[in-house]
Design brief:
mainly alpha; 3 helices
Amino acid sequence: MERYFNDPEYRHTHMKLNKKNFDQKHLILYGTIFAFIILTAWYSVYIIRGLPTLDQLENPKPELATKIYSIDGEVLDQFAYKNRTRISLDELPPGYQKD
């Protein structure tokens, strides 16, 4: 420690070595932080793009099955990608109804 304060040449050499180390450490740290911020921003945009719009949320289009009826009202066939049927809340079993 005494040499550091009394010998300017030693002090300058020692400072140059520390500065080089200091710069490399900060470069790695700042690079990591920058990469994290960029990845977080990209992921946020990716997630937000996948969300439905407010209009789609307010006016949902249920994918109900298409039923073919005969002239006397009987169901002849049913076509659907997803076999869904619309029911009212009163038709739900008691365990599924909201209190």
